Amino acid sequence: MKFLGLEISRAGASVPAQARVEPPVLAAAAEAETSGTATPQPWITEIGWGGGPKLSAKLPRVTPQRGEQHGTIFACCNNIAGDLSKVPLKLWQRQSDGQEVRVREHPANYLLNVEASPGVPAKIMRFALVYAWALRGNGYAFGPRDGGGELEMIELVDQDGCTPLRAGRDRFYDFTDGAGDLRRVASRSMVHLRYMALDGWTGRSPLQVAAETVGLAFAAQESAVRSVSGAHAKAFMKMGDSYEDDEARRRNARRLKEHLSNPNSDGVPVLGPDDDIKSLDLTAADQELLQSRKFDREQLAAIYRMPPSKLQMLEYGVKANGEQQAIDYLTDCLFHWSGLAEQTMAMAVLTRREREAEFFLRHDFDALLQPTIKERNEALHKAVGGPIMTPDEARKKIGLPKVEGGDKLNPAPNMTRDDSAGKADKKGKEE
Taking 90 as the threshold, does the pLDDT of residue 242 lie above it? Predict the structure, then answer.
């Protein structure tokens, strides 16, 4: 019954329920993957590694933690970080005439070579910063300044807990400092080493770029671990049903298994009419494939520009050419990494006015090419007699005090002949 357009019914009357119409289920919605801790989406596992090509589902995931577990990757990162941190990182200034002069009265000298932050030696800071940079593609350190603009310290931060932010062309960083305070600072107060940053800011790890090759190396290592641990199946047995009871079947299975696992057995098991054994040992082709996985070492070394001799691959050289290998390591590997580190650290350690005045940082690699005593003395003898340096300068290099007259350059060898005596003798004969 309707009254003024309204439906009026008795209180006890029942209203028929309308059938619920479900929306159609689409195939795409049914197949959509959920994201969570059990089945996370790829973007969750790739946090900190940026985008990139998707790896095969059968390859292990390439992460910095997984990379450290591979001996070759650890050796490459350890060599680069160790050699860059064990040499002094000096501050220089290039003058108008092109001469380079060492700058000693600057806070950066102390922070980069003595104590980076309260209680943290500079070498530890530089090692950790470069190690994270080589492994992850990014290395972060906090460099605050006082009210006068002087650099106070260079403090390492949690490499996983530092988040770069972008606002136009400006960059900011969220992190927790050594005092446990949350901070957001501009790029001017951060030392941010980044590798292969195609946009100038977003660093990429060499492992991330060559993810397929690195994934193959991880898969080969995991296969070797399973083989050594005995987690793989060596063979399988197919047993018939012609047994009196289950106990007889289990007894025969134990007999065959003990025969196969006994190293002193003759290798000829006795089988029933319906029994069969299939060996799962590696075939010749499989063994050749695993042998070729030695190629992983060369590939990983090439990713980091690391000479094979530095990774104890001695089949590529002998001790006789060790000096040349050291030179190749310096020019091909360390100069590549040190040049990027020097300029990036200078952006945070030096002010713009100091950089415009041609202040710059440089690693002193002379410590890596230490000569023998004989080679050192011969080189200094030639330099003093050349003449290139004064005797006092040569004595200073080997820790000896100055001597009288040692501040003057020796004359060239072809200018030391005294012709006065010959002239006197000739004049006497003529008389």
Answer: no
